[in-house]
Amino acid sequence: MNRLYTIHCGAATIIRKGVVSDLAFSRFLESAVTPRFPGFTIRSGIGYWNGVAEPTREIVIAGSKSDRFSVSEIASEYAARFGQESVLVLTVELLAADFVEGTITEQERLDMNKLREDANALDFDEGAECEHASKELGEAEEE
User: Fold this and answer.
1) Is 91:4 a contact under the CB 8 Å cutoff?
2) Backbone angles phi, psi at 122, to 5 degrees
3) What is the pLDDT of residues 54-79, one digit of tens each?
4) Is the CA virtual torsion 48, 86, 91, 32 positive or negative?
5) What does pTM read for this prediction?
6) Is 118:134 a contact under the CB 8 Å cutoff?
């Protein structure tokens, strides 16, 4: 890994006159990003385009110089799918990047993978169910 790519995905859609929903963005990640990069980070914030604020999501990918084409394909696909005038891609050359391994047991790793699978199985459009599940988890931890 010697490059850090950040794809800035504005949520306002000029052509469709709306906003990219969490569910639509999730589906985009599943179809366009995850097949190319199994590991990445999403950051949310507010971006400005032509002086107007809009919700923005950033897809951050640690990769190599050869990943540039795949990153450009993702940005182009986002622009086409969600009617974006443009999508900003920042590329930063890294001096160093390392994974620091944790010390978890095999059972803890399996439990963590199960939690990830369960979270991925949730329909992100069902906010009430997520809120309900969070309350149940909180009550279980208090006991």
Assistant:
1) yes
2) -65, 145
3) 899 999 999 999 999 999 999 999 99
4) positive
5) 0.72
6) no
